[in-house]
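Morning!

This is the sequence you dropped in the shared folder:
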Amino acid sequence: MEEQPIIIKRVKKVAAGHHGGSWKVAFADFATAMMAFFLVLWLTSTASPEQLKAVEGYFRDPVGFTEGGVPNPVDLEGSASVVESSSADIADNEIRIEDERVEQLAETLEQRQMEELFQDLQEQIEQSETLQEFKDQLLIDITDEGLRIQIVDRSQRPMFDSGRAQLKYYSQDILFELAKPLGAVANKLSITGHTDATPFGGRPGYTNWELSADRANTARRALVAGGVDGGQIARVVGLSDSVLFDTEDPAAPVNRRISIIVLNKKSAASIQQNASRSGEPLIDLTAPTPEDRAVAREQLESGEVIEKVPENNPDEVTW
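The structure's back. Tokens below.
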């Protein structure tokens, strides 16, 4: 029996060839070209006819082109430029804000400060045991003049004795507590006294007008004693029952109140301007009449204006 030859087959496995990274370079070039293409499209769509003409002239003659253009033909509004800026360029780029806009920004800032003070007062009321007990007598809001705090009477808790300008002990404690946050601000304060519509008949010639003014001044003294600087007070007035809180019930206790206003700058300036002298008065009762001037001139010319000094008695003691 013939022996069969042993045949060994060797199978050679060939892996796929390596392509390398050249395709990445090509793709990067393509992406760069597309980005440049879309950038050119964007620039040409946003450029003005004058800018397009400048670009065209620049590419025709980059070295000698000077007509109707600048070294930076397309202004990207804030892009870097090789041109050195001059004082004229800086002046043209300055931001100018109108006075009205500045006033609006100042009023907005002051409004925020009033709102922050409003929040601080609310926190002060919640944290203070004295104010917490009488918080139903405190009314706080923001008006055109500033932040207003009203301390009102309740049926069983009036701020003052009937017909008197002396504070109740708890009313004085309330004002002492309010003086702490009010004294910490730089704004001027206005204090106003109010009464109800019930006529005052305590003594002749003394009405609700005098009573409201005296109570407002008493509140001023309490605030100053509590820490408010005396120069911070801009106005103390009494309005009697001319400005009622409850117009439906003129005799209601809530109409008897003290209003403290943290004035904004506009209101404080208005008070100062209205109180200051602006021009000559229409009627000046202190000025001498023409007749008085003539009499004074005659006395000056005749010498009657010089008073004779009486001679002192040597035996008389004078002080």
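Headline: The chain has a mean pLDDT of 77.

More detail when I'm at my desk.
O.
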